[in-house]
Amino acid sequence: MFSASFVCIAPSTSRYVPAFTPPVRVLVSSTWRSGSTLLGEVLAAHPGAYYHYEPLMPYGLQQLGPTQSNQNEVEGLLRGLLRCEYQLADDYLKFAFVNHDMFMRNLRLWSMCSAMPRTKCYTPDTLARLCSLFPVHVMKVVRARLELLAPLLSDSRVRLVWLVRDPRAVMNSRTSSVTWCQTRACSDPGYLCSDLTADLSTYLVLKETHPDQVMLLRYEDLARNPYEKSREVLTFAGLTFHRQVKEYLDDHLTSDEDEPWSTRHDPRTRVSRWMKVMGFEDVVKTQYHCHSIMKSLGYRLFTSKEDMDTGNAVGLLNLP
């Protein structure tokens, strides 16, 4: 049974969900240090949204693909969460109980959890009830490749946003902003761009088979035009550019926190910072592994340090 406090909270929550908000599941697929935290929070700012933050965090610093032995387990976990089914998510719940950030990022869930004993908020029945209050689910995933996520599109409510970033900027951020990027899956540009190349192949197939359910977004475009691109993603998902989304952007884009995980800064002033701090030898190394996928995604290859100093790294997408 739920406590009286929960019974009081649930109706008040539903009042803030805009009328006629469609049931939709927005899945943001990216990789580490590619801007997914910002995009996830923008989408989660919509008042009808329930945020599944990094549900694959228990798998550590690896990239999960369709050929691995735990494919069915991973797909089952993600599909279950998008259906508010927590009964088979014991390992996920145990990890989240110790790693508070996973649930704290879901601001609406966390505010309701604060009105009950903490242990109760991690029980499958409680989470299922809270989760089901919200028509919109946002899920951010940086540890699974697109081919593994593709079966989730069998649910017509799912909208998949593939978020990419210039591999040179990604590698610079992984080496200079954080200390935990130690596995080859994280620290090796060859691994990064092999994953991106595979994701592009999957994306092009999905664009043919599920044209209304998949979208490609470059972080650089979001950073330079945050209001316009946020509106574009929300429209793709069938959602409005709600006042609370604008308020989130107004608040975060006028702050200036210099922390690796913070979204409180103006990305327009930081999107090109890597070109001022990354050594050209590291740029060349990344381009060696990534030149093909970079060209496809519209990222210019630099031929010299002077070329890089121009700051002109992003061109037009070059997709079939």
UniProtKB/TrEMBL annotation:
Report the GO molecular function annotations: N-acetylglucosamine 6-O-sulfotransferase activity
Q: Which Gene3D superfamilies match?
A: P-loop containing nucleotide triphosphate hydrolases
Where would one find the signal peptide in this protein?
Answer: none
Q: Which domain of life is it from?
A: Eukaryota
- Record bears the keyword Transferase: yes
Q: Which UniProt keywords apply?
A: Transferase
User: Which GO BP terms apply?
Assistant: N-acetylglucosamine metabolic process; sulfur compound metabolic process
Pfam assignment, any one:
Sulfotransfer_3
Q: Which residues cross the membrane?
A: none
Q: What PANTHER family does this protein map onto?
A: CARBOHYDRATE SULFOTRANSFERASE (PTHR10704), LD35051P-RELATED (PTHR10704:SF44)
Q: What is this protein called?
A: Carbohydrate sulfotransferase 1
Source organism per entry reads: Portunus trituberculatus
Please spell out the taxonomic lineage of the organism that makes this protein: Eukaryota, Metazoa, Ecdysozoa, Arthropoda, Crustacea
